[in-house]
Specification:
Protein name: SDR family oxidoreductase
Strand order of the largest sheet: 3-2-1-4-5-6-7
InterPro entries: NAD(P)-bd_dom_sf, SDR, SDR_fam
CATH topology of the largest domain: Rossmann fold
CATH architecture of the largest domain: 3-Layer(aba) Sandwich
Pfam family, one: adh_short_C2
Radius of gyration: 18 Å
Family: Belongs to the short-chain dehydrogenases/reductases (SDR) family.
Strand content: 5-15%
Structural class: alpha/beta
Distance between the termini: 29 Å
Number of domains: 2
Shape: globular
């Protein structure tokens, strides 16, 4: 299948590592022109070099962007247009909020999680829509969490604001469909990233066991029997954001090896 991504302008946020970097790499393999961002320039430089080397695609650029800074988000979109003429694809991604229960957080924690994990997505979408509407075409993927289908213990901030992403995506799917702009939400299950390793370590410390024991127990609950690889998650994202997807919009997909039991 031709995914029709060669030469397309793709923006991937929080892409210096983890799922963002894996997603940028898969787009690079398809010949897209990619702008990656994160807060850490050194990590961005390393990610850029790695993606170029592995994919053989020289059209990988980066820009430093704090997803809690509205002005930097504006500059991110402007740079993508300056480099590539437009934005065909936006992959919205941020780091996850801290683990904890209701009693662990004060107003500032809720405000921070809202701005990082929901308002940042709103801002990036706002900035790329003029280009997409002008060309009457676009794809937006919001990366969330498996909590979009089933809440996760000890992750109340994520459970709250990831659900907001789903509401945003569903509403926008109705508004943007006449412009041939498709928007979907993709939630990772237990994918082998630094974020998941950190959560495993926190659970291990809380329970007085090793992180390896936590992972082994978690894998027993996954029908496929293992954590997913970042590339496996990324390939699902790339399809939804590609020309191969012409009719899926407003949907929420979890890539989780069968872990979530909710319908």
């Amino acid at each position: 299948m031709d995914l029709e991504l060669k030469g397309k302008s793709v923006v991937v946020t929080a892409a210096s590592k983890g799922l963002g970097k894996a997603t940028a790499l898969e787009f690079a393999k398809e010949g897209a022109r990619i702008l990656i961002s994160s807060r850490n320039e050194k990590e961005l430089q390393e990610a850029q070099a790695e993606i170029k080397e592995v994919s053989g695609n020289p059209h990988i650029e980066y820009t430093v962007c704090d997803m809690m800074n509205a002005e930097e988000i504006k500059q991110l979109a402007k740079k993508a247009v300056r480099l590539n003429g437009t934005v065909d694809v936006l992959i919205n991604n941020t780091g996850g909020p801290p683990a904890g229960t209701f009693d662990n957080f004060e107003d500032e924690d809720w405000s921070h999680a809202f701005e990082l994990n929901l308002l940042s997505f709103i801002r990036t979408i706002r900035e790329v829509l003029p280009s997409m509407k002008k060309q009457q075409s676009g794809r937006i993927i919001n990366i969330a969490s498996s909590s979009i289908k089933q809440t996760l213990d000890n992750l109340i901030l994520s459970n709250t604001f990831r659900a907001g992403i789903v509401g945003l995506s569903k509403s926008l799917s109705q508004e943007l469909a006449p412009d041939n702009i498709l928007i979907n939400t993709v939630g990772p299950g237990r994918i082998a990233t630094d974020r998941v390793a950190s959560l495993d370590e926190k659970n291990a410390e809380k329970l007085g066991v090793s992180p390896e024991e936590i992972r082994k127990k978690a894998e027993q609950s996954i029908p496929i029997g293992r954590y997913g690889e970042p590339g496996e998650f990324a390939r699902a994202v790339v399809f939804l954001a590609s020309g191969g997807n012409t009719y899926l919009t407003g949907q929420s997909l979890v890539v989780d090896g069968g872990l979530v039991k909710a319908l």
